[in-house]
Amino acid sequence: MSKFTQQPTDDICIATIRALAADVVGKANSGHPGAPMGMAPVSHVLFSRFFNANPKNSKWYNRDRFVLSNGHACALQYILLHLMGYKLSMDDLKQFRQLNSLTPGHPEAGHTDGIEVTTGPLGQGFANAVGLGIAQAHMAATFNKDGFDLVNNYTYVFTGDGCLMEGVASEAASLAGHLQLGNLIYFYDDNHISIDGDTAVAFTENVEQRFLSYGWQVLHVDDGDHDLEGIYNAIVEAQKVKNKPTLIRLRTTIGYGSKQQGTHGVHGAPLKADDIQALKTKFGLPADQSFYVPTETYKVYGEIAIRGAALEKKWDALLASYGQKYPKEYAELTRRIAGKLPDGWEKSLPTYTASDAAQASRKLSEIVLTAITPVLPELMGGSADLTGSNLTRTKAMVDFQPESTGLGNYKGTYIRFGVREHGMGAIANGMHAYGGVTPFVATFMNFVSYAAGAVRLSALSKHQVIWVATHDSIGLGEDGPTHQPIETAAHFRATPNLDFWRPADGNETSAAYYVALTRRETPSILSLSRQNLPNLEASSIERAAKGGYVVHEEQSEDLTIVSCGSEVSIALEAASLLKAQGVKTRVVSLPCWSIFDSQPAEYRLSVLRSGAPILSVEALSTFGWQKYSHEQFGLFGWGASGPYQKVYEKFGITGPNLAAVGKKIVAFYKQKGGEVISPLVKAI
Amino acid sequence: MSKFTQQPTDDICIATIRALAADVVGKANSGHPGAPMGMAPVSHVLFSRFFNANPKNSKWYNRDRFVLSNGHACALQYILLHLMGYKLSMDDLKQFRQLNSLTPGHPEAGHTDGIEVTTGPLGQGFANAVGLGIAQAHMAATFNKDGFDLVNNYTYVFTGDGCLMEGVASEAASLAGHLQLGNLIYFYDDNHISIDGDTAVAFTENVEQRFLSYGWQVLHVDDGDHDLEGIYNAIVEAQKVKNKPTLIRLRTTIGYGSKQQGTHGVHGAPLKADDIQALKTKFGLPADQSFYVPTETYKVYGEIAIRGAALEKKWDALLASYGQKYPKEYAELTRRIAGKLPDGWEKSLPTYTASDAAQASRKLSEIVLTAITPVLPELMGGSADLTGSNLTRTKAMVDFQPESTGLGNYKGTYIRFGVREHGMGAIANGMHAYGGVTPFVATFMNFVSYAAGAVRLSALSKHQVIWVATHDSIGLGEDGPTHQPIETAAHFRATPNLDFWRPADGNETSAAYYVALTRRETPSILSLSRQNLPNLEASSIERAAKGGYVVHEEQSEDLTIVSCGSEVSIALEAASLLKAQGVKTRVVSLPCWSIFDSQPAEYRLSVLRSGAPILSVEALSTFGWQKYSHEQFGLFGWGASGPYQKVYEKFGITGPNLAAVGKKIVAFYKQKGGEVISPLVKAI
Ligand SMILES: [Ca+2]
Ligand SMILES: [Ca+2]
């Protein structure tokens, strides 16, 4: 494969892709034709000459991964998937951007066969691919043996200027260079056009020099519109260098073939009908036919599928003989590829009684990780330069590092992400997309917000990523309001398909991990304290795993306090003070709203029952607690810097003050009269 | 000032700062001594030889700006402010990180005299400084005249590895190079240590090469611990180059003087008492005295203050004579420095009647900008490469660009931010901190989340930044769920001191701008539609400026629907359908929750009154609406790609379906019996 041979069918294949892109976007009357038309040549060379995948089994583990980081160009990806024979018909192409189609406006993993990661939000795909590369390197180091090069795929990425401007891509690029990920090959579609027009208005950096500074191999092809041999040779060079990611800068013409080629007029709007006709004529295609695919084109792309099927078959045989020679590793590899948890793993989860010492939930998290990582070797992750604060590195862990650094190796499971939260989140999505690993990532809870763009894509794309988010309230104390989350819990509780956990003690922390690990299609954020928390009398993994339960019961109560995390023990103190004053107060712990919401109505109504007012207490914004309570106590502004006990006092989150607040509420509802109905009782 | 002369007091001053840093952190028993100790030499050279500021008037407009991007090193900044005579006493230093002190754990603008921008969240200060530089360049171009170099300050920035790893800094750095901001001088404290230990674990990129790729001047000083002349000369070189920002890489030893110097042991924990004593002895300071400042040190720093006061006096005279020669420009400059809006500006705001054509609120926003930018020339901003979609560039605007690009000039007010949302948000904070400009920024609402780290600091630091956040729901249609915000409104509504507006029509859009522009200490997000919205009968700027009001009144109603933005007209349609079926339905528009919350209780209770159930409707997550309604209708998962009317239908947000939902609710509450009390009636 080291020398390029022009095939008579190359031109027609490229023309087919370009014309189809114009047709797909034209019929939808919505979308981006320019980049697909400009990137047709590189797509054709990559897929016809290099790409190893089996369209009939898009989940074959050792397939090459393809990421379209400039996801707005997805007409291109859909066309390629269709031509190669993935589950995407010509009718699907005609339904581009229509409701309930397989061809939505941006590519969605899990929705369309052959899409590895969801892209469109710029920069994400770029960083996802670094995660794909990390997982590949790790699985290869862990499972490959002499003569059994089972895991050796490449990850190929298309990226535009937009992605390269995004900080998340910069973060991921710097880390990829540090990690020497030679399995990554990126094509930068340098077409000089972005939505605002010529990139000269905002993007004049020297991209090649920038990627060299990150430690990448950088190549370029000056005529990406025609120089197929140049593209071919660049890919060969990229594959040769094993200890560096490669960026191939391709100078292309956006919307190549259109009358408006090279302008931003072809970026995000369909071509006019006459323009489409003219370009078909120019390319030697029938001008009057839409969605036309010449037989030769289907044949060439069908051969890619045949090649891929043969490769998978060969691989299956290799895996089988690996199973003969290395039965233990085989069992483990196939279990991990299948995404199954080992039987009985949950028995390793620590449990506690109320007499156990108070500990910070970040410390409890460390204890969980120490207990479970030996039985769940697929747990792979790290922290954004807060290892000693997040407590995410267990003593037994080895750093995931290139051997040459002397700091670890690719078998290592602990990743030093650097201060790169957004990159970390997006990389974790890619790691999960690769399969075989379950990623966890860590930072202070306040800085999960830096990664919001990646977190919402974890949730949308069903990537099981576990966030260890420590220092989760004013309870972090001295670092002050710049570091104290207020709005953060509301943000993530409002996100669909995301479990936000704020455990109150040891058993609840174990429960959070238990549920997070078993929810294979849902990311979780574990919001953990810096300060020590006593173990509750009533907690257990089983009870907490319901998302909410009664931690202190009273019959014919005057008040229920619902709380979570570090405030549950304060609520219990308030309840005890109130009891001494004759006010019967139940306390409910609600560590995870989304899981609680999924319980049967009867259970939920037994926990947050009618009959007495319910007061919520949390050392964060009260926003959202109205769903579960009649009255809310929390922070109504920013936090403060100081020793944490004093900060709690300042904001009135203490047993005595909450008891006073509770009495006021009880008096108010008594005076108001009438039955107090649970806020969970709803018409819709 | 072009040649360095060693002063006999230099060493003692540097030793004072280093010892004070150890004492300040030691007494607090919390904080970061290492960077302050390592950066004492550069601080001393910069402030004693170059820095122009008047500690007695920290708001003097033409002062040099200092940004400590590695804000965790704030013991250093507090010490410098104290020594120079800002309003920060030795007692304040002793109260470091204590509750209600002027010396919180990270520096907060508006809280402590002399702090320009809030730092600590890494990367923010780096990007804020680019905003300071943009505003300086713009104000200089706009107001300076021959012989009147009124605005010519520098912005000096300290940054560590942490900031340089953050994507937000990469984004800002690339833009600063493009914009050729010669007024920016950054010092990179290259101490090879971050929280995870040696930077070799995660940060091995070539920083000098990277900044060269961005178009910066890059210098270095190999011995930042001792080479004062080298530091001095680097600053001189930096000042000489007028068309490039400068990065000076200083190789320093973290915690210089400590027994643990050069290790991560001195990064984030106090030094031991014996270590502090030993370093004082080493530096020739009395080992047994804490918080000791030699007379010479106070004298040297007192002279900086004297120099600064004289500079301000001279500047005042220059300004006065400018006022003689250019009275109009003088009036405008002083108005803008004072942050006053011109009288009667609000008369330019467009108003509408119900017969005016339906328009997208993003278009209504463009009409507002077109109307008000001529009377509010301080409005300066742009879009993250979505100008044609956000509609933020009025026809009269000129691009803010270096003249050499041929694309604009520094007088221009329109900024091409590139696809750099987080950088854009942080830059806008810096622009506001500079004064004289009112920044606005734009992207799709979903991608404001990329900038969450900067948005929360706008709110915390009271930066009046206006976000034009278009494409604000499933109403964007074909781009699909990757671009359709769901959780975004909840996130920003939960943020303190942030006004999140979702206007329903033309008058409400004008109201949103009116309030956003008059709220001088609060950032605003204007959430705007892609799709057309009819003008409401009942809307007016005055009514909408209350944050919530009745758009359709009924007496003895059966139901109230509360909504906002593009769903208000759908709610009105539902009300009309319900009326035809005998169900009397009021409709309330609630474009801004925080503003509505600030109205008198009586008003709020008249809008969302007791007596009938209240149903909220919004094409976003229902999260948070429980505060204003008994029942909630909205999105319970992700959106979908397709023409927007079909997407609305899919999720049941149509007049007929809402009417059906409304009837169900009315029946439920009738059956339930008892009085229906407004959710605004609360005990606390
Ligand atoms: Ca481009
Ligand atoms: Ca450092």
Automatic annotation (TrEMBL), chains A, B:
Q: Which GO terms describe its biological process?
A: pentose-phosphate shunt
**Cofactor(s) the record lists:** thiamine diphosphate; Co(2+); Mg(2+); Ca(2+)
User: Which residues are recorded as binding substrate?
Assistant: H32, H267, R362, S389, H471, D479, H483, R530
User: Which residue positions does UniProt flag as site: Important for catalytic activity?
Assistant: H32, H267
Q: Where thiamine diphosphate is bound, by residue?
A: H72, G120, P121, L122, G162, N191, H267, F447
Q: Which residues form the Transketolase-like pyrimidine-binding domain?
A: 359-535
Would you tell me the Gene Ontology cellular component terms?
A: cytosol; nucleus
* Substrates-to-products reaction catalysed: D-sedoheptulose 7-phosphate + D-glyceraldehyde 3-phosphate = aldehydo-D-ribose 5-phosphate + D-xylulose 5-phosphate
Q: Which GO terms describe its molecular function?
A: metal ion binding; transketolase activity
Per UniProt, the cofactor note for this protein states: Binds 1 thiamine pyrophosphate per subunit. During the reaction, the substrate forms a covalent intermediate with the cofactor. Binds 1 Mg(2+) ion per subunit. Can also utilize other divalent metal cations, such as Ca(2+), Mn(2+) and Co(2+).
Identify the residues that bind Mg(2+): D161, N191, I193
Locate the coiled-coil region(s) and give their ranges.
none
Active-site residue list: E421
Question: What EC number(s) does this enzyme carry?
Answer: 2.2.1.1
Keywords linked to the UniProt accession? Calcium, Magnesium, Metal-binding, Thiamine pyrophosphate, Transferase
Q: What class of enzyme is it?
A: transferase
| CDD domains found in the cross-reference section | TPP_PYR_DXS_TK_like, TPP_TK
Please give the family membership noted in the entry. Belongs to the transketolase family.
NCBIfam families for this protein: tktlase_bact
Subunit description:
Homodimer.
Function (record text): Catalyzes the transfer of a two-carbon ketol group from a ketose donor to an aldose acceptor, via a covalent intermediate with the cofactor thiamine pyrophosphate.
Give the protein name, as stated in the record: Transketolase
